[in-house]
Every structure is written in C-alpha cells, then in structure tokens.
C-alpha cells in the first residue's frame, strides 16, 4: 500500500512537470508592425505594446520576446513562478545587434519591475528611465520580493540599463540602475541564488546597483548566494555595487570606471562594498576614475558586516584611496560592527588624488580605517602612490581614525608601500596594531617599522620602477585582462602576485 501511494505521488509530480513544460507559450511584441488585437503568439501576430501583456498570466516555461531595434514605452511589470527545469524567460528576437528598449515614462519610479517570482530570467534588453527632472528613488530595473517567502533563481543577464536620472542625494532616496528589494512584515522574504551578470549600467544616477532589505541584526533574514559578475558600470557618479542584508555574496570580474564629478559636496560614495552583509567575497574587479566628494575608494568593507574578503582587485586613479574599512561606533544594537575583514593581494596605483577640500579638508589616504573595526587583516597588497596633482593633495598612506571609536587588533603584514613623494602614516588612537615585514619605499613620517628590506627595494625597483616610474607598466605584469562591452577589465592574477611576493620574502 505504501509503495502504491508513493508511485501515485511520483506519477502526479512527473505529470505536473510534464504538463508545465508542454503547456508553455511564447509571446512576441513588435512596436512597429504589431497590434494589440493580435494573439501575440508568433512574430507575424505580435502584440504592439506592453499593455497587451496584462491579459496573460505567466506559467512555467513561458517566454516573452521583444523585437530587436524597437522601443517599447511604458512600464513593464511582471510576476511569474517558473520551475528549475522550465524557467520563465524575458528575451529578444529578430535580426541585428540593437537590443529592444523598454523606456519608462516621465514620472515612472521604474521602467521594469519583477515582483514575487521564481526561476525567472530577463536578458538581452535595454532599459531606460529618464524623466524631465531628477526623481528620488527612480530606478531602471526593480526586482522585488515582499511578503512572499523565498524567491529562487532570478537571473538578470546582458541588460543595458542607461540614463536613469534619480536624485544625486542619498538621504533623499538616491536612484539606481538596478534596485533589489526584499522585505515584508507578514512573511519575511528574501532571494536565494539571484544572479546579475554581463550587464552594462551607463549614466545612471545616483548608483549602479543597490539592495534594500533586512539590515537589522535583531530581524536578520539575509538574501543568500547572490552572484554579481562580468558587469560594466560606466559614468555612474555614486556607489557601484552595494549588497545590503546579504549572506555569501560573490562579486567578481566587474569594472566600474569614469565616474562623473557631479555629486553635491555632502555625498559619500565608493566603488564596490557591502553593508549589513556576512561572508562577502569581492575579487577580480577593477575600479578607476571615482570622483565622489567623500570616500571615493575603489573598495570598502563597511559596517554591520562580518568576514568580508577583498582580494585580487585593481584600484587606480580614484579621488579616494584603494580601500575603506569602517564601522560606526554609534550605530546601535542593530549592527554587529565590522569584524574579520581581510584585504589581500590587491594593487592600487595613483589613487588618492582628490583635488578639492571635503569634510576633513584635503583627505584621501590610500587606506582609510575608520571607527571601531575589529580583527582586520591587511596583507600582501601593493600601494603605489604616484606624484600628486598639486601640493595640497593628501599624501597619507594609511589613516586609522575615529568614527565614534577606534580600530582594534589590526594586522598589516607584508604589504608594499611605495611613495613617489614624502608620505606618512597616521594611526591616531587605534589600538593593538601589528606590523609584520612590510616594505616601505620612499620617505614616510611615522613609519611603523624602522628596519629596511634592501632585497625587496631592489626587486621592486628592478621589476616595477625601471619599467615605468608611475608603476602601470611594471605592475600590469601581475595582472590579466578580459574585454567587457569593448572596455578592458584588469584584475590581479593570483599565481603572478603570489610568486612576486615569494621572491621578496
């Protein structure tokens, strides 16, 4: 009897899967030749507008295809529960390379919204959302999971998201290319295995991609297993990639470049950084040309985070330095602080070139440690500080200062600090700083270790400085590269930089 019942149950499950896979539909949209009076089920009978999609309910295996080269004005809102073997797919069809564009209207908060969905892929589209005036909170793509439970396997692939004019002020609500939202009071909700890859985010204000979720440690329900990979972020003035309320996020092979200097003087922003996250891995990324009035580092391990790992990244020519490691000592009991950050095998060239005063004057150390961070390891990084553009620009290598408290138990091990001009270290009142075999090439005030390593200096001079004094040519030998949307992403080769340090130590 039990075997029979099990067999019947298995048959029912297989039947439902077979039915789902074989009852799927493909819907076509053609803004020029289509008509909303058509049935939408073939290119010849395509619908014309986004409005026509309101008459369907997406089922596992369904596809919505937009014709290439066409512009579809309005707001696209979609909900669908696919299955692992039959996801729902939003895609393009037709000839040519020009993606179909979903163009939001003047007042729209988003051009595309995916709400409470599972096993859902959106790819190969362009999204724009430009209003007559900047609007706080405006985004291009909003992916939301509210009072739903767990949203599985949302994939955002090869989208171009451009020209979103949100607010430039964070406290007003900012704006973004991609906004990921999870929450809910009746049913706590989160994403599991959300992936953002191969996208191009261009001229979006204020930020490229940012999350909004459960940040309070008293109500901790983080998104799990997020992947952000192979994305190009270009001409975005604020924050690049900011997961919030996530656990086990992987951020790799992303390029953020050429940020415009348009943020108000009140604003702080940086390239890639987590907030209220655990076990974030940030690796093989490049950030250059960040010009925020405050911070403007390539990378950041921010507060309410545990076990952030920043490795094999390349930061150069940013107004701020390579990395910020920070914790607010006055955050309250919703925060766990900043514990266990590791920054290793990264390269900074020509960072810290902020040309104007900000909150603390001309402030742009190569490494900034702010507030009561704990158990931080900064190991085997190369900081190559070139000549600054003016005498007023900050030349500090490391500053460890107060944010309602000071850092404790920070280890700096086997890093290379090169300064083309006299530099300094400023550890203020931070406690239990450990310095182990670091290399100092140049003149430094308050240098934490007095011994010299002539072997290391000679190797660095021979392999780097003789190739080019500015460090780019010599240190690029430690990097690999890949093309992202006709831009070149440089990242650190693990085997090359490890071999380089082994030749020194």
UniProtKB/TrEMBL annotation:
InterPro entries in UniProt: PbH1, Pectin_lyas_fold, Pectin_lyase_fold/virulence
Signal peptide: 1-20
Keyword field: Signal
Name of the molecule in the record: Right-handed parallel beta-helix repeat-containing protein
Source organism: Phocaeicola plebeius
């Amino acid at each position: 009897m039990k075997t029979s019942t099990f067999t019947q149950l298995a048959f029912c499950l297989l039947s439902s899967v077979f039915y789902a896979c074989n009852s799927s539909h493909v819907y076509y949209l053609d803004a020029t030749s289509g008509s909303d009076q058509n049935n939408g089920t073939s290119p010849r009978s395509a619908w014309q507008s986004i409005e026509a999609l309101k008459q369907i309910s997406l089922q596992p295996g369904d596809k919505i295809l937009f014709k290439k080269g066409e512009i579809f004005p309005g707001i696209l809102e979609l909900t669908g529960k696919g299955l692992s073997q039959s996801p729902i797919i939003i895609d393009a069809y037709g000839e040519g390379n020009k993606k179909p564009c979903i163009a939001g209207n003047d007042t729209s908060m988003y051009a595309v919204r995916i709400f409470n969905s599972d096993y859902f892929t959106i790819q190969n589209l362009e999204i724009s959302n430009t209003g007559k005036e900047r609007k706080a909170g405006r985004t291009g793509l909003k992916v939301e999971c509210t009072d739903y439970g767990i949203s599985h396997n949302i994939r955002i692939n090869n989208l171009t998201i451009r020209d979103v004019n949100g607010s430039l002020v964070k406290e007003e609500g900012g704006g973004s290319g991609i906004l990921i939202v999870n929450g809910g009071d009746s049913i706590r909700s989160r994403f599991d295995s959300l992936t953002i890859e191969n996208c191009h985010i261009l001229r979006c204000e204020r930020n490229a991609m940012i999350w909004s979720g459960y940040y309070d440690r008293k109500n901790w329900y983080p998104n799990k297993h997020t992947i952000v990979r192979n994305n190009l972020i270009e001409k975005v003035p604020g924050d690049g990639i900011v997961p919030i309320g996530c656990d086990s996020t992987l951020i790799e092979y992303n390029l953020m470049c050429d940020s415009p200097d348009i943020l108000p003087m009140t604003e702080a922003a940086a390239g890639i950084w987590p907030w209220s996250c655990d076990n974030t891995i940030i690796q093989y990324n490049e950030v250059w040309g960040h010009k925020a009035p405050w911070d403007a580092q390539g990378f950041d391990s921010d507060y309410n985070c545990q076990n952030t790992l920043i490795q094999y990244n390349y930061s150069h020519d940013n107004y701020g330095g390579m990395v910020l490691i920070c914790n607010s000592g006055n955050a309250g009991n919703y925060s766990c602080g900043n514990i266990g950050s590791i920054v290793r095998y990264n390269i900074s060239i020509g960072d810290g070139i902020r040309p104007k005063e900000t909150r603390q004057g001309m402030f742009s150390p190569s490494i900034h440690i702010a507030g009561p961070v704990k158990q931080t390891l900064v190991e085997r990084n190369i900081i190559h500080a070139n000549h600054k553009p003016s005498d007023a620009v900050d030349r500090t290598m490391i500053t460890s200062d107060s944010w309602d408290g000071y850092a404790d138990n920070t280890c700096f091990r086997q890093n290379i600090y090169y300064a083309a001009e006299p530099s300094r270290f400023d550890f203020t009142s931070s406690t239990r700083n450990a310095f182990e075999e670091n290399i100092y090439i140049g003149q430094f005030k308050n240098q934490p270790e007095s011994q010299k390593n002539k072997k290391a200096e000679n190797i660095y001079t021979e392999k780097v400085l003789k190739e080019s004094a500015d460090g780019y040519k010599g240190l690029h030998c430690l990097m690999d590269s890949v093309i992202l949307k006709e831009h070149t992403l440089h990242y650190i080769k693990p085997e090359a930089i490890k071999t380089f340090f082994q030749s020194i130590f």
